[in-house]
Design brief:
It is built from 7 helices and 5 strands, in the order βαβαβαββαααα. The longest helix has 34 residues, at 103-136. It has 195 residues and is of the alpha/beta class. Strands 2-1-3-4-5 form a 5-stranded mixed beta sheet, with helices on both faces. The mean pLDDT is 84. It is elongated and about 80 Å long. GO terms for molecular function: DNA binding; DNA strand exchange activity. This is Site-specific DNA recombinase. It holds the Pfam family Resolvase. Residues 1-138 form the Resolvase/invertase-type recombinase catalytic domain.
């Protein structure tokens, strides 16, 4: 059975769902097996897509007018097609001529998967290079420390003087989890207390 999925962006008639509906019907999708979403492709919440993916069964073919109607990104698109494959459901995109029931469509899918993997590797490489460059310039990532050096010194002195962690938290206005994490990070090995 052919199951159709359509998506149009929100806004004042930027896209018209009739074009997609007509193409899917012409491809043989029954009007009762059409699912649609009205919203940005970047929107993770797409009830129409969820219903379509729940509806398909082994042997069915999910049909879209164009690849960009289905996935938010190349990796998201491949994830959806992989999940269809796991359910033994084929995929067809009318505009690009991609059809996973055909060997050429399977090849195209594998090429897309390789490109997505390459894209992820390039992004990771750029991020790591950026972090290394920032580190060379003396910048470190992450949040600034909650406890500045002077306050941390006073806290350690109070703890070494016998003040309980609970009293330190109250007196210095520090959350207990922040105190424990900071003490672990600096390697403080004072006596554990019950407070």
């Amino acid at each position: 059975m052919l199951i159709g999925y359509m998506r149009v962006s929100t806004g004042a008639d930027r896209q018209n769902i009739d074009l997609q509906r007509d193409a899917l019907l012409a491809a043989g999708v029954d009007v009762r097996h059409l699912f649609a979403d009205y919203g940005s492709g970047a929107d993770a919440h797409r009830p129409g897509l969820t219903k379509a993916l729940d509806y398909v069964r082994a042997g069915d073919v999910l049909v879209v007018w164009k690849l960009d109607r289905l996935g938010r990104s190349l990796s998201h698109l491949l994830s959806i097609i992989d999940s269809l494959k796991d359910k033994q459901v084929a995929f067809r995109s009318l505009t690009e001529g991609m059809d996973t029931t055909q060997p050429s469509g399977q090849l195209l899918f594998h090429v897309f998967a390789a490109l997505a993997q390459y894209e992820r590797a390039l992004i990771r490489e750029r991020v790591m290079a950026g972090l290394a460059a920032a580190k060379r310039r003396g910048r470190t990532g992450g949040r600034p420390p909650v406890l500045v050096a002077e306050k941390l010194e006073a806290i350690v002195e109070a703890l070494n003087g016998g003040m309980s962690k609970s009293a330190v938290c109250r007196n210095f206005g520090v959350k207990r989890s922040t105190l424990i994490d900071t003490l672990n990070r600096i390697g403080w090995s004072g006596k554990p207390d019950a407070g």
